[in-house]
Design a protein that fits this description.
- The protein is about 25% helix and about 20% strand.
- The protein is of the alpha/beta class.
- It has one domain (about 1-140).
- It has a seven-stranded mixed sheet with strand order 2-1-7-6-5-4-3.
- Helix 2 packs parallel to helix 3.
- It is globular.
- The termini are far apart.
Length: about 140
Amino acid sequence: MTIVIRLDRAEAVDEASVDFQSLEDFLASPGERPVLLAVDEEVERIANHLPVIPEIALDFPTFFDGRHYSSAQILRKNYGYEGDIRAVGDVRVDQLEQMVRCGFNVFELADGQDPAIAREKLQGFSYSYQPTVDREPLFLKR
């Protein structure tokens, strides 16, 4: 089982991994199925199908590769995607605050990550100086 944290739940859950389709399989036969994007695959390739995709998983092959932060933000801000955006792969508790700010709402934690610490990290800060997908920056509130 995989430890999954969902923003809309108060606790971490053990959850069998969702059966995500690869981008190529999805594009060969589009439909109402979850899609997994590798780090080098662009979200623009599924833009026309977003209304029917219930969940998109963005793979982080290593902790050091942050390209999918932009992918999540593009999905939320540019395309108005309202489905789940799941972070998978090498997802560590130290990344969660920034992932939420970019639009992720489901997190499959990497092995060895503590779900209690993850929930604590997701409490976040009440203000931010930079804009996020769901908040204006602090200076605009003054």
